[in-house]
Amino acid sequence: MSDTTGSSPFLERPMSPESTQRHAVSLKYRMNAMQNEFEIEKLSLQRELLTLDKKYRSNLDELEKALSDTKYLYETNTGLESKVRALEEQLSELKTTQDTQNFRLRQRLAEKERDVEQLQSESRSKVSEFENKYQNSKIESESSKSLLRRYEEEIESQNQQIKELQSAAARRDDEIASLKASRVVMAHHNYSTEELTELTTLNNLLEEQVKFSKTLEKANLEQANELKKLRVSQDSYQFLLSENERLKAKQEQQGSLERQMQDLELENINLQSQLSFWNSFNATKDENSKTRPEEVVKEWTILKHENLGLVNTNSKLQLDINNVKVLNDELALERNQLLEINKNYETSILNLKKLNYEIEQQKLLSFEECRILRKQLDDILPLENHHEDHNKYDSGSLGDLVENYKNKTEDLTNELKRLNEELMNRGDAMPSSKKRKTSDDIALNYSQRLNEFQLENVDLNRKLAASLETISMLEAKIAKLQQLDQKKLRIMQLRDNPFSKDQLVKRKQLDLLLKENQDLLAKRSFSPENSVPRSLYDRLEFDIKQLESEIFKLNKKTARLREVFNRKSLEFIEVVNSLLGFKMEFQSDGKVKMISCYKPEKYLVADLHHNSLKSNLQSEIDSWDALLEEFVMKRGQMPGFLASVTLQLWEKQQKRPN
């Protein structure tokens, strides 16, 4: 303590026993107040210490929970890694089985290709054979044409001869009739031998001519029959030519159908490969048994549900990992905060200990001071009865006492400071290094585990991406299988739709064409009668029915479109009349007649081809020429002219009395 700041007031002026007693009471009161304040501060510091201890323990519990969560995540991560390894092994096994199946299917495909080449060679040979037959039939038809022409010429010549003979026979008949008449006239006359011989010769000649005419008629009938046969054969030849052309077109279509069949066979082979790939999952069955598409779809649904479960678990794990990362960051921040709080807590504890120790020392010092003061007061009280002459001596003794008191208090304060410094040095020696070591070890272990978790997370993400790619590939293959499954498509389609109808018509037409082709090929040599296969008639009847149905549909469509057009045109005219005030009537030669709704008996006729306008509204509108000059001639605004005309007509209608 300094000399000016002593705890005793005796340095300023001497005090009476009453004042010293009052001063002792005040000091006692101050000591009680300081003791109470010390107790209050001690309780508050204890309360703060308890709260800090609770926070520290709760943070330690949260840290332990986070460590247990990370441990659980690590264990789940190991379990997922084992599952991923098992899936990788299964995938490798599937790849090996798929490779073997692909090798077998390639062998089958090579065999099928050889079969297809053999079939193509056979079809080429058949086509060449049909072409040779066609050429032969063509040559035969040409020869039959030439023979037919020759027969026609002969028939014409014979017809000419028959006509001449018929005319000669008619003349002879006339002569015979005349002779008979003359014979009747000359019945009673005597004839000479020469006339009789002439008559006999004439009769013989007539009989020969009659026989010759009969033979000619018979030959003519035979030639007419042959001509009919030749015409029938010509008609059949023309029919065969048309059928041959149709068969060629069908053969070309058959070539496209063969290509489609080859494409379908390739698709079938691909589907069989895919089915064999899916059959590899069914290891319990025999090798020869094939898995049906329903079982494949069922397995696919199971795998899809498992995949969804794995994806959900993966997403949950991803969320947990993200939450762990966030929790890790929060724990790192909280750890730093806890370290700061712990450090502040330790410093506050040390400060509180130091303050507590100082307060205890001050308490002891105040007790010691009070004891000294009481002793001095006891020594001072007997001196009250002395005379005032001894005041100087008393003041000197009191000054000595005060100096001794000051020296003792300074010694005590120095001793207290030294003890406090030793205590602080001892408290800061061991615990700080030990706590720093434990906190550093915890942080190091935590960072190592975090790095391991991050590496494992990267590996799992890579494996997850690979598994998702395989899943997407399998889903695409299954989608193709579902698209090619006719039963599924039939279930998904409507019973009566345009596509199924078209397919049904095409299938029926193809069946009829195949049947017709078979009948025509089977009937190589036609009978002399004019006959065709029944399949040709059925096919033509089917084509006619299809054309009639198409014509009916087109007529129905045109009627519906005409109705829609008429309805929309009426709506258009009504809308134009209601909005613009004119009723439109489209006339011939590009003319449009516009009738105002305010003056139905008047109209305007616009010629769009000649850009002319005729009207009988001049009498109704006074400024007709001015409006026409202003809007049409100068500005070229026909809508403005019509709007002004409509406005003036409306104003006139409003001014007109009801």
From TrEMBL:
Gene3D superfamilies: 3.30.457.60. Keywords: Cell cycle, Cell division, Coiled coil, Mitosis, Nucleus. GO terms for biological process: attachment of mitotic spindle microtubules to kinetochore; cell division; mitotic spindle assembly checkpoint signaling. Residues 247-274, 402-484, 537-564 form a coiled coil. The keyword Coiled coil applies. Pfam families: MAD (PF05557). This is Spindle assembly checkpoint component MAD1. It comes from Lachancea quebecensis.
